[in-house]
Design brief:
Layout lengths: L2 H12 L8 H5 L18 H20 L23 H22 L14 H26 L4
């Protein structure tokens, strides 16, 4: 496999939908009145999962590109404070996720994937891109399950 093939695979992995539901599938069509509902027995709502996806992805991107990056505190920096979005927060979160995902795909096309991130502790760009893809797939799957339990999955 050459460098271009690897970069293409990593870019596709960031919005992969061949083996499971895509981000777009998971977040589209959720009625506003369900976005803040937590199914019985689960600690999160669709909103909490969406915003966690956005915040975590944004954090990994910031780590990759910002030499002055500072890690957020856990869990406050990575999960929203409320179960339901306020105003147009849902739409802004969806758009923010998409914008940052495109920035990560751009990073995959240009960065030396095997180089250590200069301000990190040995992490490579490839590691961080695979980490965000894996994390996103995990929580997108959870969002599908939450939708099923709420009765709003196709």
């Amino acid at each position: 496999m050459d460098d271009a093939q690897l970069r293409t695979h990593v870019q596709r992995l960031l919005d992969w939908h061949d083996a499971h539901a895509s981000f777009e599938d998971a977040v589209s069509g959720i009625p506003a009145e369900f976005r803040g509902r937590q199914p019985a027995g689960l600690p999160y709502s669709p909103w909490q999962l969406l915003e966690h996806l956005r915040l975590a992805q944004q954090d990994i991107l910031a780590f990759c590109v910002n030499p002055a990056y500072e890690e957020k505190s856990w869990p406050e920096g990575y999960w929203p404070g409320s179960a339901a979005p306020v105003g147009d927060a849902w739409e802004r979160s969806v758009e923010g996720f998409r914008v940052d995902r495109e920035a990560l795909k751009e990073l995959a096309s240009k960065a030396d994937l095997f180089a250590a991130i200069p301000h990190g502790t040995g992490q490579t760009y490839l590691r961080e891109l695979l980490l965000v893809a894996d994390h996103n797939a995990y929580h997108i799957g959870e969002l599908v399950v939450v939708r099923r339990l709420l009765g709003i999955w196709r």
